[in-house]
Design a protein that fits this description.
Two copies of one chain form a homodimer.
Chain A: H1 3-13, E1 18-24, H2 27-38, H3 45-56, H4 60-70, H5 74-83, E2 87-92, H6 102-122, E3 127-129, E4 131-132, H7 138-150, E5 157-159, H8 174-182, E6 187-189, H9 196-203, H10 213-227, H11 230-233, E7 239-241, H12 243-246, H13 252-264, H14 278-284, E8 286-289, H15 296-306, E9 311-312, H16 323-330, H17 336-350
Parallel strand pairs in A: 1-2, 2-3, 4-5, 5-6, 6-7, 7-8, 8-9
Chain lengths: 356, 356
């Protein structure tokens, strides 16, 4: 599609479609996953379930996703044109480098960021990127967040949930969180497979993946950050959650009630009073995107309970690359201005896309 | 409150309030819990976290709940009168007898049912009961479901989620499920603490309880039943979920998409095609109650996506005994007829209360 034709279609439509949770994977990273699986170098059951499937299966789903993940060129752009996506905000797919040892992870995150930044440089009107980091080395992660923002023009940070079973509420990750807050750059908290202590009964029933387990892993991760006081320590930190907030918006009322009751009863020594209610953090420090959730009732529900400025469009390419879902997202009953917020202006604000 | 005054207030209001997830605990069961905790007889971390708190804490929350759980007499009735609850559907609190050895569990379930049936017999206009069973002995459980329905006048069956880490999708529980279907009596699938394989990162952050872990445990349990084909084998089986369906209504769209994609890719040998979509089972074999979720946006959402006849009122007494929440539930924007469905007639139909 010519750039003129694309701009004309945005003008006619009234909004650009910015897809905010779109994945890529460097070939070298997938190669390393393959080696880890073959050599049984890494005993994480979630990694084995997810990447054993994608890299081992001959199914159309697996082979297409593996091919599309690695492409930051013509195929991706053609897919965007075919479904009317004007801009992808691209991030390193889960679990990214978070399954490696620290040194490998630091190096591979840098490489991934360089590769992504180059693709963005080639197509700045269509691609934006998020900085991948290695939480295994929080200082290096902090430095990479700075480099990503200042030198590579990245628009946020991608964290693919747990790192070797550890979550961002752990004090060891404070440098990483402080850097994201200081750079005024949002963290996209993206799913990966549930950590070892969480996966057993999900895995044995085939529920560990995107069907359910991802949301348990990621919703819990977000709540751990909130109840441990991360946002009291970093009040300006902003986190973006996919899949309409991993169902946490559904729980706003109960989270407030049970947190208050649990704190009052002093049930857990490490669950202390917070400055705000749980729902306040979820409304003031969190954005949610509609990745994988092209469903009007849930989108409208989140807009109602979080605010119209807190819900962003996403596709979840290439995992959920479905033209009909773009049409379904277009058809969510919204005013013209609200639809523009949902597809375009919220993303421009949250990810500082002005001038891109 | 005199019975005449109560009936007059129902007439004025236009509906009776039937609370459908209300808990009790026989003193003997709590005594046995206490002994198990003291003697470290039972190494389930979820049980220790939950009941170590309730039975060990001097907090007002814990002591009041323990007192109210054991009362099936004047205190409970006074609490119902004070908050305008006309009828409680009472069930054995989680984890019930499901933490005991099979013989103890079978005996104690019978005792609990006899105690509850007697209370219902004393106040048939205010109390109804569900049958507690010991899934540890599925044949005995099936017999108890029959006895509960036919001899004790029970209105359903209570299952407090996992039994020693096993879920109702396991083939060993087929007698239990077959009996519930044959007796045309719904199973209330109620939370308990997450099973051992699911609890570690929830417990270490204080999220294992009603604030979040209960919903993970119980939502997963429900999904395990669906994806394993329980409702293809027992198509008339009806399950009631509290807490507005443990957020599963929020996931209807994604569950359908990901189940279809996972089955098509043959990712798991034990995840086979089903006769219906996941959302069909959730709309046709499941009812949800508003226990602990006295929040209009989520109640309305569930009514929208499941159907007005699928959402029932509940309080979650004594765990969430809050007069203001009854008022909030009254104030959910509904037509008079819909409000009567929500508070009264859906419960009368699902739990066969006609003539009670």
């Amino acid at each position: 599609m010519s750039e003129a034709a694309r701009l004309e279609s945005i003008r006619t439509r009234g909004y650009a479609r910015i897809a905010t949770e779109e994945a890529f994977a460097p070939a070298a990273m997938l190669e390393r996953y393959r080696r880890m699986l073959e050599r049984h170098e890494f005993d994480d059951p979630g990694f084995r379930s997810l990447w054993g499937f994608y890299l081992g299966s001959r199914s159309p789903r697996a082979t297409q996703i593996i091919a599309k993940l690695q492409d930051l060129g013509p195929q991706r752009m053609a897919d965007m044109d075919a479904t009317g996506i004007d801009r992808q905000i691209i991030s390193l797919t889960g679990p990214g480098v978070q399954v490696f040892d620290a040194a490998t992870a630091v190096a591979m995150a840098r490489d991934a960021n360089d590769e992504l930044a180059e693709a963005v440089h080639r197509a700045p009107h269509r691609y934006s990127g998020l900085t991948a980091v290695a939480p295994q080395d929080p200082r290096a992660a902090a430095a990479e967040i700075e480099r990503g923002k200042r030198q590579l023009g990245m628009k946020g940070v991608i964290i693919n949930s747990h790192t070797h079973g550890e979550y961002l509420d752990h004090p060891k990750f404070s440098d990483l969180l402080a850097a994201a807050e200081a750079e005024n750059t949002p963290i996209y908290l993206h799913p990966q497979s549930p950590s070892k202590g969480l996966i057993a009964p999900l895995l044995e029933s085939g529920l560990d993946g995107a069907i359910y387990g991802f949301s348990v892993e990621t919703g819990m991760h977000m709540l751990r950050m909130i109840v441990s006081g991360v946002f009291d320590r970093y009040p300006r930190l902003q986190v973006v959650l996919g899949h309409l907030g991993e169902a946490l918006p559904f729980w706003l009322f109960r989270l407030d009630y049970m947190h208050r009751a649990t704190v009052a009863a002093a049930r857990y020594p490490n669950m202390r009073p917070l400055k705000r209610r749980i729902s306040d953090y979820l409304r003031e420090n969190i954005y949610v995107t509609s990745s994988g959730m092209a469903w009007a009732p849930a989108i409208r529900f989140c807009q109602d309970v979080l605010g119209m400025d807190r819900v962003l469009y996403a596709m979840d390419y290439p995992y959920q690359f479905v033209a009909d879902e773009v049409a379904a997202s277009d058809a969510v009953p919204l005013s013209d201005q609200e639809r523009r917020q949902f597809f375009q202006t919220n993303a421009e604000r949250v990810f500082s896309l002005q001038g891109s």
